[in-house]
Write a structure and sequence with these properties.
Shape: elongated
Strand order of the largest sheet: 19-20-21-22-23-24-25-26
CATH class of one domain: Mainly Beta
Number of helices: 6
Helix content: 10-25%
Distance between the termini: 84 Å
Structural class: alpha+beta
Largest sheet: 8 strands, antiparallel, barrel
CATH architecture of one domain: Beta Barrel
Length: 446
């Protein structure tokens, strides 16, 4: 009776610990999936982005894409298409072929007979044959009767015994201690130790969660640590708040824009958008489908700045024809500006997600890549974005700084090393044959 308060306290602390652990769980991969969509395009994810089972197909333990499974949960078999995990026979732990009568290894307490999993005797852990008198080893807390080969219960608190009497125990359960005469009694020191440990962990988790305040984890697949929930500027504030600058030639061309985006600090992947620019109203629109799902684009642009939202349609099919677990109907915000002294330098900026999924951030760089487009402008005098040019990375190696201009398309997108090694000699963005490669050094700002 003296132990009842301690046991009650221990149960309460365990419940608090379970709640704290549930609160402190990291964001599901779906949040990261939205971040991947931040890049947009048909190749928006690398093979290792999907690792959480929350993002994988049903009954899949590990996957490389939201629609492609690499390993199924126990009791399921990977289909030939690797799109589904098909169930093994009932009570089967492992099978090479799904369906009835194809089990290779049964769950504990069952034995394979003619491809099916038949039950062993009650409380039997392993058996070579099914039936009430065929057990080979019993579960913890039970003893195998030599003559009947059945499992009989040990005394209370006993885990392993040589007979079923109060003094026949060889090993006690957790929280009990073995007495010299072979009986099991509650161990008060163990109860107190576990109570203190659970209580300490609960307090530490509470203090850790409280210290986070209004922060959300900006991690998941695309980052680490906690970041403040800073909202990106509105479309109007970003585009119309700029200083007046000369227009870099004619209006922004509508059609395919290609480039890359970053996530998790340094990782890169390719992206592609079909954008329509209304020169009269300054509106930006578009739509498309990527690894996350179908999306619509809306925003505004000016002479050297671009801001738009990419809104996913909930439950829409992705490019593989399936519904991605990363599609939460969320939005990805883009804010970018002209990266150099001509439109061939493209637009560079940041993408962000700020919603219940969490906080995700990255960079992007887009170039006009529609058929027939070219930019022969040497220097159009556009300012306000040259500082970002020095940070721009080669679209091929994602490492060295951009230092060339390709002719005749005019794309300023490659470093010297990658430009010299192009084979065939085609622009990697618009696929136009290259006639010349010029060294390109942006003019210094005033």
């Amino acid at each position: 009776r003296a132990l009842l308060p301690a046991l009650a306290l221990m149960r309460a602390l365990i419940a608090v610990l379970g709640l704290a652990l549930a609160v402190a769980q990291p964001l599901p991969g779906g949040g990261g999936g939205g971040g991947g969509g931040g890049g947009g395009g048909s190749s928006s994810y690398s093979s290792s982005d999907y690792s959480s089972s929350d993002d994988c197909p049903r009954n899949c333990k590990r996957c490389s894409r939201s629609w492609r499974c690499d390993a199924c949960e126990q009791g399921y078999r990977l289909s030939n298409s690797r799109r589904t995990c098909d169930p093994c026979p009932r009570n089967c732990a492992d099978c090479d072929t799904s369906g009835p009568r194809y089990c290779d290894r049964c769950e504990r307490g069952f034995v394979v007979e003619e491809g099916l999993c038949e039950p062993c005797a009650p409380h039997c852990q392993n058996c070579d044959h099914s039936g009430p008198d065929r057990c080979d080893s019993c579960e913890g807390g039970y003893m195998l009767e030599t003559g009947t080969r059945r499992c009989s219960a040990c005394a209370a608190g006993c885990w392993r015994c040589h007979d079923t009497t109060e003094t026949g125990c060889d090993e006690c359960r957790t929280m009990y201690r073995l007495e010299p005469q072979g009986s099991c009694t509650m161990d008060e020191l163990k109860v107190l130790g576990v109570t203190l440990l659970v209580g300490t962990i609960g307090v530490m988790l509470y203090l850790w969660c409280s210290s986070r305040g209004p922060l959300r984890r900006g991690g998941g697949m695309f980052g680490s640590g906690a970041v403040a929930a800073v909202q990106p500027p509105s479309h109007n504030a970003f585009v119309l708040g700029e200083a007046l600058v000369p227009h870099p030639g004619p209006g922004l061309p509508s059609g395919i824009w290609r480039g890359y985006y970053t996530f998790a600090g340094t990782r890169h992947d390719v992206c592609e958008f079909n954008l329509n620019f209304d020169q009269a109203s300054g509106a930006v629109s578009g739509d498309g489908t990527d690894d996350v799902g179908r999306y619509d684009i809306s925003g505004i642009h000016s002479v050297a700045r671009l801001a738009f939202s990419k809104k996913y349609v909930p439950r829409s099919l992705n490019i593989s024809g399936v519904v991605s677990f990363g599609n939460k109907g969320h939005s990805v915000e883009y804010r970018g500006e002209l990266a150099g002294d001509s439109l061939g330098s493209g637009f560079r900026g940041s993408w962000t997600i700020r919603n219940s999924l969490g906080n995700y951030d990255g960079q992007f760089h887009l170039w006009p890549a529609m058929e027939g487009w070219s930019d022969e402008t040497e220097t159009a005098g556009a300012t306000g974005a040259r500082a970002s040019f020095e940070e721009s990375e080669c679209v091929v190696c994602y490492d060295r700084a951009i230092a060339t201009r390709l002719r005749p398309c005019g794309h300023v997108a490659l470093c010297v090393e990658c430009a010299s090694r192009l084979n065939p000699r085609k622009c990697p963005l618009c696929r136009v044959n290259i006639s010349a490669i010029d060294n390109h050094v942006p003019t210094s700002g005033s």
